[in-house]
Design goal:
Elements (H helix, E strand, L loop, with lengths): L9 E6 L3 H6 L7 E5 L9 H14 L6 E5 L8 H9 L5 E4 L5 H8 L6 E5 L2 H5 L1 H5 L4 E6 L1 H8 L11 H14 L2 E4 L8 H14 L3 E4 L5 H7 L4 H19 L5 E3 L2 E3 L1 H20 L2
Parallel strand pairs: 1-2, 1-8, 2-3, 3-4, 4-5, 5-6, 6-7, 7-8
Antiparallel strand pairs: 9-10
């Protein structure tokens, strides 16, 4: 699977400096891991964290999970060294924090040939989402909702109304350019009902998955962002009905009292492809 066909239902942050966490991540049923050299690592640990992470990735054991390394910003004293070190690591993607312009991605692209993801977590980043999403080396976006909430001075609301414009701008940018886009974290990791509601909202909006801060959140995210059995069944029946209609010289079919056109078949095939990709991940 390439990065565009892999599932990204659950994307778990792991500190790049913690051997125990790095080892435990090998056994978790997540679709992707963000190995963090930025916020999760204290300034004094950052140089050693690069070596710890490089050794863990070289040892392998992460299966077909997408391995994403979040470096420090290039405007910090650690960013360039992080990027050069990550270029040599056995990882799939480099994730740059606080991206506000495509020029920041240009600077990182000079240091690595790996695919890039962008943390979208500032007002300027929201306003420049379309230009950022169009960068030729970019293939994914991650919503940094904690930093964004701080920058916007919003209050927490279960419906995330203060965030909707920002989330939507990034979604539009990602969908327009074919980028993966994953939703921000849910901080109350023991609140399963709240997490499920936010996952359902993100899935309904069009996000590919959710970033997570605790292994206890994985199962809920995996379920929320996977096609349900009912969706899979409907997709199969839509495809079959449309193919029968085409064979009869008709351009539309009817399933469950609803019109099925070619655009619905495209969506149905996408649902089945995602289900197949998830099944492959579980092997």
């Amino acid at each position: 699977m390439d990065l565009q066909t892999r599932p990204f239902r659950s994307v778990l942050y792991i500190p790049g400096s913690k051997d125990r966490a790095l080892d435990k991540a090998r056994s978790l049923p997540v679709d992707a891991i963000i190995f963090d050299l930025e916020d999760a690592v204290s300034p004094g640990e950052k140089p050693a964290a690069r070596e710890t992470l490089a050794e863990a990735l070289a040892s392998g054991g992460y299966g077909n999970r997408t391995r994403i390394v979040r470096i420090n910003g290039l405007d910090t004293e650690w960013g360039e060294a992080d990027a050069r070190a990550a270029e040599a690591m056995d990882c799939d993607v480099l994730l740059l924090p606080k991206v506000e312009s495509p020029e920041q991605l240009d600077a990182l692209a000079k240091l690595t040939t790996k695919p890039l993801w962008a943390m979208m977590e500032t007002p300027r980043g929201m306003l420049n989402a379309a230009a950022i999403g169009a960068h030729p080396q970019l293939c994914g976006m991650v919503m940094g909702t904690n930093d964004l909430a701080k920058e916007l001075s919003t209050r927490f609301r279960a419906d995330r109304l203060p965030m909707i414009t920002s989330l939507s701008l990034c979604l539009l940018a990602a969908k327009a350019t074919g980028c993966v886009i994953v939703d921000g974290v849910y901080n109350a990791f023991k609140d399963e009902g709240g997490l499920k509601a936010e996952c359902d909202q993100g899935r309904d909006m069009g996000f590919d998955g959710k970033t997570l801060i605790h292994p206890a959140q994985v199962d809920i995210a995996n379920a929320a962002f996977a096609p349900s059995e009912a969706e899979i069944d409907t997709a199969k029946r839509q495809i079959a009905a449309f193919e029968d209609a085409e064979a009869a010289g008709q351009g539309v079919a009817v399933v469950d009292g609803k019109i099925v056109e070619n655009l619905h078949v495209v969506t149905a095939r996408s649902i089945l492809a995602k289900a197949d990709a998830i099944a492959e991940m579980a092997r």
